[in-house]
Amino acid sequence: MSSLATMFDACRAEDRAALIGYLPAGYPTVEDAKRLLAVLLDSGGDLVEVGLPFSDPVMDGPTIQAASDRALRGGFRVRDLFTTVESVARAGGRAVVMTYWNPVHHYGVDAFARDLAAAGGLGLITPDLVPDEAEDWLAASEAHGLDRIFLVAPSSTEERIALTARASSGFLYATSLMGVTGARDVVSNAAGALVRRARAHTTLPIAVGLGVRSGDHAAEVAGFADGVIVGSAFVTAARDGEAAVRALAAELAAGVRRPAAQPA
Amino acid sequence: MAHAGQRGTAAPLPPTRHDPDERGHFGPWGGRFMPEALIAALDELSVAYDKARIDPDFINSFDRLLRDYAGRPSLLTEAPRFAEHAGGARIFLKREDLNHTGSHKINNVLGQALLTKRMGKQRVIAETGAGQHGVATATACALMGLDCVIYMGEVDTRRQALNVARMRLLGAEVIPVKTGSRTLKDAINEALRDWVTNVATTHYLLGTAAGAHPFPVMVRDFHRVIGIEARRQMLEQVGRLPDAVAACVGGGSNAIGIFHGFIDDPDVRLVGFEPGGEGVDTGRHGATLSAGTAGVLHGARSYLLQDPDGQISEAHSISAGLDYPGVGPEHSWLKDTGRAEYRAITDAEAMDAFKLLSQTEGIIPAIESAHALAGALRLGHELGEGSVILVNLSGRGDKDVDTAAKWFDLIDPAEHDSPDGRDG
């Protein structure tokens, strides 16, 4: 059983959703990011998504774009990603990497998987890679024992949800709305419908991301999903420092522990 | 419209043996490296295009627009005074500059706008570099009553201020993009962000033969008319096929359009000229096929300019329309198979050719097209006396007069009312 499966089982046993927090490696500096990831996990996060800053983040809104920019201007290199993941794993934390495909493609898909596994990373979230184009990654993830987290969206057909779920392991990432990353005032009502549709095709845990920023959002999503993913709100907190990350993680951790009742 | 196309302008859209596989791969290139959220829209577009490209109603509508609105067929013009500088070669120009809106871009735009109507979408978004594609898109949207939003890098809005005004005059909203290098690549990023948010109501009218499937094959097909016409005109007017076809390559749409007219003529060399900027060895260029490596950008696997970490590099070119670190996947395939060859032309060589054509033939070319003209001069010297070269003159240079005036120092500040000049 993979480490992610164990984590979701444990959360289920506690009748709650998992809290999954995203922060980009290298933001605001490589060492600061390591510390902030540790704080996130110490303050109630169950899993971190370590972002690989990319020059052309087409699925990201202004908050993550600005953080990626800052990390790259600060001299971030791909090797820093692996040391960041390693620092999380050494402290006993769980980390997956979220990355656009080109840096992996350029590094060499098998080499990237090898080095990520060696650093103690558990898998990859691939926002611009669909299973249809993922032949190399399917092979490399098998070879190196990594989980493959693909995304489904409100626009996905039943056929594509089934195909994507079959190719995924660890968990399935459901994007709550049609749009780029960024905190929103309300959780899209498309999220619940998408999770319900996905349940018909898979027994994998399903985590919901895009737009979640508060404890109340987290509680709402925890009512129907197995994991709550928070990105831009953590990046904004990271800009404000350790205390802000700690406070947000605590608020969200409380949220995932009081799942909202689901409408009948 | 049984008579449509009798003058031979019928748009050649149906599939050929040069099509990609059903998932959009040209050999190892192309495909769909896109967020899942956009896959449904790409599937919808593929289905709509596959039906349209063999539907006589669609083909006739497209053909009628090309003829009665865009002004096709475009002329084939010999350029003898220009050719005096080409080592004895004869040079012929395919006059895409004479199309309505001043470049080849109108072909693709009319095709995709028709398709947008068929798909029942009311809103169109597009990126633009030099502004030619943006102007063409704004034009087609005005013609067909579609809402139009154009994303343009802030640097380019300054380089091409006149085109910004043209687009606004045509009723489009122009959004300057202030992220990244603030040029074409960033305009595409921003258009993709809009598309993923508004995909249910919006068609992304991509302006070059790049991006995720089906864009490379669809955009190519809408431009195949250039090559089909040029081949016929060469046979009618010159009595033979050219020895070489020269075209500029940024994303590669005009090149792929003219190349396809000759792709089954093995004796015709197909040569693409990329923006060499300040020189390929300086690192400040946009010569993706000459100096790039395999990568994934904007939805397709293709050659790319990138750093050792796979971060996308900024391209550099005096030509806003060629200032792009990627290239269409079919060009990557044609490079690998050897059917086409690709070379770099520096800013300086392109500007020399720009001036030379202006002063020998009375035709001011787009700076993009001037790269192909400079390439033709080189090819002429290589091929020698009596050789015949066809150049795709993909656009006119009115938009570039400001850039040229600065490059050649044509404006005497003393003649000017405002001593500060323009900030453009």
UniProtKB/TrEMBL annotation, chain A:
<feature type="active site" description="Proton acceptor">
    <location>
        <position position="60"/>
    </location>
</feature>
<keyword id="KW-0456">Lyase</keyword>
<dbReference type="Pfam" id="PF00290">
    <property type="entry name" value="Trp_syntA"/>
</dbReference>
<keyword id="KW-0028">Amino-acid biosynthesis</keyword>
<dbReference type="GO" id="GO:0004834">
    <property type="term" value="F:tryptophan synthase activity"/>
</dbReference>
<keyword id="KW-0057">Aromatic amino acid biosynthesis</keyword>
<comment type="subunit">
    <text>Tetramer of two alpha and two beta chains.</text>
</comment>
<protein>
    <recommendedName>
        <fullName>Tryptophan synthase alpha chain</fullName>
        <ecNumber>4.2.1.20</ecNumber>
    </recommendedName>
</protein>
<dbReference type="InterPro" id="IPR011060">
    <property type="entry name" value="RibuloseP-bd_barrel"/>
</dbReference>
<comment type="similarity">
    <text>Belongs to the TrpA family.</text>
</comment>
<keyword id="KW-0822">Tryptophan biosynthesis</keyword>
<feature type="active site" description="Proton acceptor">
    <location>
        <position position="49"/>
    </location>
</feature>
<dbReference type="InterPro" id="IPR002028">
    <property type="entry name" value="Trp_synthase_suA"/>
</dbReference>
<dbReference type="InterPro" id="IPR018204">
    <property type="entry name" value="Trp_synthase_alpha_AS"/>
</dbReference>
<dbReference type="InterPro" id="IPR013785">
    <property type="entry name" value="Aldolase_TIM"/>
</dbReference>
<dbReference type="GO" id="GO:0005829">
    <property type="term" value="C:cytosol"/>
</dbReference>
<comment type="function">
    <text>The alpha subunit is responsible for the aldol cleavage of indoleglycerol phosphate to indole and glyceraldehyde 3-phosphate.</text>
</comment>
<comment type="pathway">
    <text>Amino-acid biosynthesis; L-tryptophan biosynthesis; L-tryptophan from chorismate: step 5/5.</text>
</comment>
UniProtKB/TrEMBL annotation, chain B:
<feature type="region of interest" description="Disordered">
    <location>
        <begin position="1"/>
        <end position="27"/>
    </location>
</feature>
<dbReference type="Pfam" id="PF00291">
    <property type="entry name" value="PALP"/>
</dbReference>
<dbReference type="InterPro" id="IPR006654">
    <property type="entry name" value="Trp_synth_beta"/>
</dbReference>
<feature type="domain" description="Tryptophan synthase beta chain-like PALP">
    <location>
        <begin position="71"/>
        <end position="395"/>
    </location>
</feature>
<dbReference type="InterPro" id="IPR023026">
    <property type="entry name" value="Trp_synth_beta/beta-like"/>
</dbReference>
<keyword id="KW-0663">Pyridoxal phosphate</keyword>
<feature type="modified residue" description="N6-(pyridoxal phosphate)lysine">
    <location>
        <position position="105"/>
    </location>
</feature>
<keyword id="KW-0028">Amino-acid biosynthesis</keyword>
<dbReference type="InterPro" id="IPR006653">
    <property type="entry name" value="Trp_synth_b_CS"/>
</dbReference>
<dbReference type="GO" id="GO:0005737">
    <property type="term" value="C:cytoplasm"/>
</dbReference>
<comment type="pathway">
    <text>Amino-acid biosynthesis; L-tryptophan biosynthesis; L-tryptophan from chorismate: step 5/5.</text>
</comment>
<keyword id="KW-0456">Lyase</keyword>
<comment type="similarity">
    <text>Belongs to the TrpB family.</text>
</comment>
<comment type="function">
    <text>The beta subunit is responsible for the synthesis of L-tryptophan from indole and L-serine.</text>
</comment>
<dbReference type="GO" id="GO:0004834">
    <property type="term" value="F:tryptophan synthase activity"/>
</dbReference>
<dbReference type="InterPro" id="IPR036052">
    <property type="entry name" value="TrpB-like_PALP_sf"/>
</dbReference>
<protein>
    <recommendedName>
        <fullName>Tryptophan synthase beta chain</fullName>
        <ecNumber>4.2.1.20</ecNumber>
    </recommendedName>
</protein>
<comment type="subunit">
    <text>Tetramer of two alpha and two beta chains.</text>
</comment>
<dbReference type="InterPro" id="IPR001926">
    <property type="entry name" value="TrpB-like_PALP"/>
</dbReference>
<keyword id="KW-0822">Tryptophan biosynthesis</keyword>
<feature type="compositionally biased region" description="Basic and acidic residues">
    <location>
        <begin position="16"/>
        <end position="25"/>
    </location>
</feature>
<keyword id="KW-0057">Aromatic amino acid biosynthesis</keyword>
